[in-house]
Amino acid sequence: MVSSLQDTVELHNGVKMPWFGLGVFKVEEGSEVIESVKAAIKNGCRSIDTAAIYQNEEGVGKGIKESGIPREQLFITSKVWNSDQGYEKTLAAFDESLRKLECDYLDLYLIHWPGKDKYKETWRALEKLYKDGRVKAIGVSNFNVHHLESLLKDAEIKPMVNQVEFHPRLTQLELRSYCKKHGIQVEAWSPLMRGKLLDHEVLSKIAHQYNKSVAQVILRWDLQNEVITIPKSIKEPRIIENADIFDFELSNDDMEKINALNKNERVGSDPDTMMKDFE
C-alpha cells in the first residue's frame, strides 16, 4: 500500500518516481504558479509536472528555488510540445525548458502528444538526452497502444512512463494492461476529470463511507490501480486535502464500483484525432 506522499515507484531503469505530484496545467505564470509550487513542496509534495506549452516553466523554477528544498530531493517533469517535434528541434526545446526552469537536469521528459509521423525522431532526441545524463527518465504522453507498438519497433530505450488522461470515466484498461506488460509506468493527467466527477452520486456515497471527499477517493483509486497521479490545484487548502489520501484504503468492492463507472469518455483531446499544431 502506498502510505505516504514521499512513497515512490521504481521505473524500469531504476529511477524512483513519487506516486503523487502536483500538476500545473493552466496555472498562470507568475505568482499563481510560484505560490502553488511552494505550497505543494511545503506540504510534502516532491513531484512537479509542467510542460513547455503551459508557459509557466519559469514560475515553476522560481517556486522550486524559493521552496528551500534541495533540487535533488525533487522530481521535475516537463514535456516537448508538438511544434517542437523532430530531432534537432526537440534538443533545442529541452535546452529552453532547462533554461526557464533554472535546472541542470530534468527527472522526466515526455513527448507531449504522438501526432502523425515525427515522434520517432523526437524519441531519438530523448534517447540522446538520456544517454548524455541530462534527464533521468524519458517517456511519452497521450500514446495509445498502436503508438507505443510503433515506437517500440525502432526505439533503443523503452519509455519509462506514459502519461495519459485517466479517471473513473476513462479507465484505459487495454492501454494499462499493455503498459504493465512492457514495464511502462502509467501516470494520470486530469485525474478528477476537470472537476466533473466531484458531485457524482456513486462517488459521493463511497466518499461518505470513508469520511473523505470525492477528490480524495478518486486519487486513492488511482494509486490502488498502480497509476501515478498529479492533480492540479492553486489553493493551499485544496493541495493539502488532495494529498491527504494515505490514511485509508478502498475495499475491493468499492474499487469495482468505481471501475464500473467507465464510459470511455474524455475531457481532453483524443490522441488519434489531435493532429493540430503538427506541421
From TrEMBL:
InterPro entries reported in the protein's UniProt record: AKR, AKR5G, Aldo/ket_reductase_CS, NAD(P)_OxRdtase_dom_sf, NADP_OxRdtase_dom
Keyword Kinase: no
PROSITE patterns: ALDOKETO_REDUCTASE_2, ALDOKETO_REDUCTASE_3
SUPFAM superfamilies hit by this protein: NAD(P)-linked oxidoreductase
Keywords: NADP, Oxidoreductase
Domain spans labelled NADP-dependent oxidoreductase: 31-262
Pfam families registered for this protein in UniProt: Aldo_ket_red (PF00248)
UniProt xrefs under CDD domains: AKR_AKR5G1-3
UniProt keyword annotation of NADP present: yes
Similarity comment: family membership: Belongs to the aldo/keto reductase family.
Name the UniProt record assigns to this protein: Aldo/keto reductase
Organism: Bacillus changyiensis
Upper lineage: Bacteria, Bacillati, Bacillota, Bacilli, Bacillales
